[in-house]
Amino acid sequence: MRSTINLDDALMEKARLLTGTNETAALVRQALETLVRVESGKRLIAVGGTMPDAKAAPCRRSAADRHSLSASALATPMLTCWHPSFLTSERTYGPETSA
């Protein structure tokens, strides 16, 4: 779909620096995908506990990646799945690190 939109120059420059992407269409697409992922996660959180027989939503990362705090994991700006420990002050860290 083609559309004409007004974008904040400073915000676009910050997005370019953070992502390394210079193409405006790619930045907008990535922003929309991130928005959909985050809002979907918020909806899952909102219904949390109301469906006791529900199974956990699939995550895109392996269990090892989710529990690792490697430099690349810390550089990832968005979670690809939601875990209840992120909603409380009690967070789970890998065996080699601490809070």
From TrEMBL:
Q: Which organism is it from?
A: Phyllobacterium trifolii
Q: Which Pfam families match?
A: VapB_antitoxin
Record's protein name: Arc/MetJ family transcription regulator
